[in-house]
Predict the structure.
Amino acid sequence: MTKNTIYGEILYVGFVAEKGRVFSRIGKYSYRRILRKHAFFWQSVIWRMIDGAYTEEDEQLIDDFIDLCQTQKEIGKFYCPQSKSFAEIKQRIQLGMRQADNNKEDIIILSFMNELVLELIALLKPKIMINRDKVHLTIRALHNLPKYFLHGSETFIYQISNAGANFQDTIAYSISNMDESMKKRYIQIYNELIEP
């Protein structure tokens, strides 16, 4: 099991969870603080996915993931299925995680996720007014991108059925959830990355 498959599953669970609650809760400062923590964690995961090698940094990130879930209950509740403890999840990840050899399509998906998470972090900087629609759009554009890294009829940690998606569908769905200004930027990123 490559580490990008495992990390993709973690990202997918997190993105879907926040997509489901962001629009109604973004007005609350306490939720914004939680979402910022979650977004910084996602950024760390994406960086480890970009670096395909399996290193001690991956082991540390899994420890950080478990710690985040245990100390931030509003995040952790989405990542711990009732049938498993965090200790079981950690053990399963460590036993299954292997190096990832990123191809061009992997890099494009990772670039999209990285840019969108950076955009989300910028939108969540502490301020009185926040652009609720833009935050919601950004998470909607993000939420299916990790499905590209999921394979098989059931995922590795959370037993999500038929979660995988091919490259073209993943990119098309992400772009379809963007507003016009985002579409222009991300189509340009796509075109720059797809060229030989």
